[in-house]
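Researcher: Re-running this chain for the archive, since the previous output was lost when a drive failed. Same request as before.
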Amino acid sequence: MSKQPNKKDNGKAVQKAEDYLLQIPVRKQFTPLTFPPLPYKTAVTNPSSSGSTNDYVIRFTEHLLLTSCKPPPPPNIISSIVQKTIGTNHFATDDLRMTEEFHELILVDTHSVSITHTFDKYHPAQILYSKCIIRDVINVHQWKNPFEERKFSITFSPQTYSYNDYKNAWYRAFLLQPNIHSWFFNFHEQCSHTFPVWFYHWWTMFGCTPVIFPSEAKEG
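Model: Regenerated structure tokens:
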């Protein structure tokens, strides 16, 4: 009996890199960064509060660069400095080719996750929300040689990535615009219950709670 061609994917099957690439159109998902007209110290120690609270959002501040300007420069100057430092990404990188898509592809190509993006039908370049099924988290022993680079199964630039790139991918692959985008995460039923220590740090850093870990994972 042949499979139904339009059967809905619930994240059960292993996602291939070429299938993932088909659902990613050329898009500009980043908007210029804006900053409040406040001194740096004031902006960090007294962040502006919104009218309502959201239990699913946790503010995480990462200091990307330090400047020594007296008096503080206008906001447009600060925005220009940041854009020239980190480009269009939401993270600092030594290689501008290592974009958010590059890190997503690492996780997909290693069969660590399956990712599905849902786009706005009125604005095809804008992702409304995404689903990520965690299938596996590779530890350094499984990688065997942490200094060995692996190749993507499809053509991409850069073509290779290391274990350090793999770990960074977990921290950078999901950095889409939080004000207009949301992620749904779930563990695959066959996912291992043993995780590297750095994955626990990733889990707590992004606001997840260990309460929902299976008992086997808590004991490990």
